[in-house]
């Protein structure tokens, strides 16, 4: 009885906090560079399909336009990525390419979606890439460019966490990078570099990155996340600890956002590419397994479906109101700005929050990520060092 009462008051209390803490949209354009917690500027908004000016997206001429568009979703064979592929097929995007580390798994999903009548034959295609393997990333980029002359929707979605003892390896890639650091961050960084000219020559052009609210659990020592510095190789190896793996997950999800913001800055106001990091919500997928050959039963009774998990990405790809916007993070539910909470080193309070409150606050939020994602000098250093380690940087000077 007392438990029910407490839970009930908890829900009422969070509802009140929720209602009173939604900031109004900024009246004028937020100044660059980027927002910060002090100036606010985060708000609840309509989903893309509720925006009046977007009503034509699913009717008439727009359908014909989407029919010529090309999308690439890394990790599109399972979980949230598959949920995104389903929605893009339904909307009529002409070509939807999904990747897996196994070409067979990608093809299996292609067959399934065609047989279920969700995607048309030829509309969805499977390709292979292991993002932790930089040669494999080069091969995908070359193959993609030889097959397609544009890329309108690039969804950097693949990723996961490596549970010690579950992941078959290799735990360290050829270049010496730990698998999770390479797979969740560095491989996506390289793929972005290799496809950027193709994206730039495409209209429309949108990039969405599936990050996570877990990025709030980032380490205090950002320097240790730079690819040429001390990122800890032992942390998430198959023989590491679970805590180490979760820490590394939080770190890589942080790096995705920092990378997105740096790209926004580098492209500046002259580019037509809109780049948006997102959180999908707490979604029931294979993510806890850490071993791609095994499927885990959903561990989260309050988790939502991959269809829900696709919503922020679709907003990033199609919303008119987010076009050209920088510095935002899309969340599918309200959350407090977590650094104000007593945040454990692993962001457990963040996860607990997401778990308990996402359903009652579900909606589209142009939200602020961790303030350190806006650290301009870190972003710049991360970008430059990443270019260097993937072999795309300027030749090192002999001085
Ligand atoms: N589920 C959640 O609650 C949640 C919450 C926040 C953020 N996310 C993020 O959402 C994204 C999708 O995860 P999910 O929940 O849908 O998990 P999932 O069902 O395990 O799907 C992960 C996808 O990523 C691919 N992948 C993983 N590591 C890869 C690598 N090194 N190279 C290439 N592809 C790789 C997998 O392909 P194969 O295994 O077939 O190779 C699979 O298609 C991830 O970035 C995750 O961090 C999920
Ligand atoms: C942060 O990490 C760097 C690189 O690993 C290390 O050299 C430095 O000592 C660390 N700083 C602190 C305060 O721990
Ligand atoms: C863990 O794995 C790495 C790379 O696979 C290896 O170099 C290291 O020795 C292993 N550590 C232990 C304690 O087994």
UniProtKB/TrEMBL annotation:
It comes from the Eukaryota. InterPro entries: SDR_fam. PANTHER family: PHOSPHATIDYLINOSITOL-GLYCAN BIOSYNTHESIS CLASS F PROTEIN, PHOSPHATIDYLINOSITOL-GLYCAN BIOSYNTHESIS CLASS F PROTEIN-RELATED. GO terms for molecular function: oxidoreductase activity. This is Short-chain dehydrogenase/reductase family protein. Keywords: Oxidoreductase, Signal. The keyword Cytoplasm does not apply. The keyword Signal applies. Residues 1-23 form the signal peptide.
